[in-house]
Structure formats: C-alpha cells, structure tokens
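# step 3/5: fold
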Amino acid sequence: MKIKNYRFGFDIWGLAIFLIIMIPNFIWFAVPAPDDILRSESKTEVIDMIGSVCQALFAATLCFVANKNCNRLRITSKIVAAACFVLIYFAGWGLYYAGITAPPVIICLTLLPCLAFLFFALDRKNYIAVIFIAEFTVCHFIYGMVNFIL
C-alpha cells in the first residue's frame, strides 16, 4: 500500500453503502423491536469506544479517500458479495424485529455489515479503509459475542 496512490476526494458510493447499511439502525433508534436485547447496557464499554472510533475512521476513509488506481464503480464479484451481505443483514434485522434473538441472528447483525464494508473497500482498493474496517469488525464481534451470546 503506497500512500502516494491515494487522494482525498468525495466518494458518493462510499457514503451510499454506509447510509444503506445504517438504515436498519436508524429505524431501530426510532422504533424498538419487541424483544430488544440490543438496548441493554454493554459489558464491553472500552471495546465499544474503540469500535466507535474505528467506525468513524472507516466511514471517513470510505467517503473521502480514494485509490488513484481504482476504476469507476462497476459490478464485480466483490460488489456482488457486498450486496449479498447487505441483503442478508437486512433479513437478519427482519428476524430480530420478529422477536428472534438467537446467536445466528446476533452474528448476522454483527458480522455481515462489516463484511459488506470490507468487500466494498477491497473492490475500491481502499486499503486504508480496510485497516479500520478490520479493527471495527473485531470490536463489533467481541461486543456481540460478550454481550449477547456468551
């Protein structure tokens, strides 16, 4: 990864994937689910804080950092994978709102948005974002496991 291959500039697709993935979260903030275990107090406050910082950094790098060697957005296997992860993630939210809070649903809500971001960033050759996404993924996974599965 050479820093000289990157430039600052607005990437509408980076913002789009971030906002699309956040739609269920915006709904959840406004409309609680029936068995809303996600609103319980977290046991992983330090991990959550680190994760929040990494989330802000990966969102910023997805939206404002671009690899000069990357072509325009087009349908590739990584973009298709990212889209599939988003759709399954939305289905996971549907199950959650149906009152299903089993470990597979929690893992779906925890890992699939991260994988969508990761595959999008890999497609865009945005390895700076990949670093922050990987760190966020670890924190988000720990949060989900410790608070809702273990």
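# step 4/5: annotate
The longest strand covers residues 6-8.
# step 5/5: archive (pending)
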